[in-house]
Specification:
Elements: H1 8-26, E1 36-40, H2 47-50, E2 59-60, E3 72-76, H3 82-87, E4 93-98, E5 104-109, H4 119-131, E6 138-142, H5 145-150, H6 161-167, H7 171-176, E7 181-184, H8 192-203, E8 208-211, E9 215-220, H9 223-245, H10 255-264
Parallel strand pairs: 7-8
Antiparallel strand pairs: 1-3, 1-6, 2-5, 3-4, 4-5, 6-9, 8-9
Helix pairs in contact: 4-8
The structure holds Dihydroxyacetone and zinc ion.
The site of Dihydroxyacetone (2HA) has 9 residues, from loops.
C-alpha cells in the first residue's frame, strides 16, 4: 500500500521528482546523497490523506513558518541517494505534514524516511513563496560541477557577472532562465542563515541561486522546470569552460544581440 495508490495527480508529482533525481545522478551532480528536492503537494491532498495518522514523531523544523499551516510536502530523505530515489521514490523520500504550530512536521507516508538535511531552507522558501502568492511548488538543490567550479572565482560572484556571461553563451539560456543566477555567499550547509540568504536572493527576483562553493537552489512551478533552469545554466557554463579549455575567452553574444533577443522574447531586462 502506498499513499500514491489511486491518486494519479499525486503519483505524477512524485514520478516527476523520480525522473529529475535520475537526471541529477546521470549528470554527475548528485554524488552520494548530494542534493535534495521538495514539492508542495497540498493541492493533491484529499480528506483521506488529511485523516492519516503520523507514522513518526513530531519533529522541530527549527523555524516557525506560519504560511505552511495545513501544508503537505514530498521530500527527499536525508542521506538517501538520488540514484536510488529515481527508482524507489517512496523508499527514499516521504510525505510530511506541517503541524498546526507551524514549527514541527510529522511524516505520514509511506515509510519513516527522515526528510532532507536542507529542510529548513526548502520549507522557509516554500513559506516565502506562499506569502508572495507565487504559483511555485517545487524546489531543487543540486551540485552542478561547472557552476560550482565557476563559484570558486570571486570575480564571478559579483552581482550578475555570472548571469551575463552565461546568458551570452547561447540564446536559450536567457529565454529559459530569464531572471539569471543569484549569488549566496558561502554559508554552512543546512543552516538557518543559508535559508535566510536564499530567500533574500529569491526575493531579489532570481529563480535560481548559487550557493557559493556548494551548489544551486532553484524554484519553479514544478520539479521539471526547476531542473531545466539549472540545466540551461550549466550548458552555458560548459560552453564557457570548453572555450577557455581551447585557449580563448569566448566572445559571448553582443549587447545588441542580447537586447534584440530580450525584446523579441519579451523577457525581463
Ligand atoms: O543533501 O546536498 O546540502 C545533501 C546536500 C546538503
Ligand atoms: Zn548540497
Amino acid at each position: 500500500m502506498s499513499i500514491l495508490d489511486n491518486r494519479p495527480g499525486l503519483a505524477k508529482q512524485v514520478g516527476d521528482v523520480a525522473e529529475v533525481a535520475g537526471y541529477l545522478w546521470q549528470k554527475g551532480w548528485a554524488e552520494r546523497n548530494g542534493g535534495n528536492i521538495t514539492v508542495n503537494i497540498t493541492e493533491h491532498v484529499d480528506d483521506a490523506i488529511r485523516a492519516l495518522p503520523a507514522i513518526g514523531p513530531k519533529t522541530p523544523i527549527g523555524l516557525t513558518l506560519p504560511n505552511l499551516k495545513g501544508c503537505y510536502f514530498y521530500c527527499k530523505g536525508t542521506n538517501r541517494r538520488m540514484r536510488d530515489l529515481a527508482r524507489w521514490p517512496m523508499q527514499n523520500g516521504s510525505v510530511i505534514r506541517i503541524c498546526d504550530d507551524c514549527a514541527h512536521y510529522e511524516i505520514i507516508a509511506d515509510d519513516v524516511v527522515k526528510p532532507t538535511s536542507e529542510l529548513p531552507s526548502h520549507l522557509a522558501v516554500h513559506n516565502y513563496l506562499i506569502g508572495k502568492g507565487s504559483t511555485y511548488k517545487a524546489s531543487v538543490h543540486t551540485h552542478p560541477i561547472e557552476l560550482v567550479a565557476m563559484s570558486h572565482n570571486p570575480e564571478f560572484l559579483k552581482k550578475d557577472v555570472l548571469s551575463n556571461i552565461l546568458w551570452s553563451m547561447i540564446p536559450e539560456t536567457k529565454a529559459f532562465c530569464p531572471r539569471g543566477l543569484g549569488i549566496v555567499p558561502y554559508m554552512l550547509p543546512s543552516s538557518n542563515e543559508l535559508a535566510d540568504a536564499t530567500i533574500k536572493a529569491i526575493d531579489d527576483d532570481y529563480d535560481v541561486v548559487m550557493w557559493e562553493k556548494h551548489g544551486v537552489f532553484s524554484v519553479a512551478d514544478d520539479v521539471l522546470e526547476a531542473f531545466d533552469m539549472i540545466d540551461v545554466l550549466t550548458k552555458s557554463a560548459t560552453i564557457y569552460m570548453d572555450a577557455r579549455a581551447m585557449g580563448f575567452i569566448p566572445d559571448g553574444m553582443t549587447d545588441a544581440q542580447m537586447k534584440e533577443m530580450t525584446a523579441a522574447f519579451n523577457l525581463p531586462k
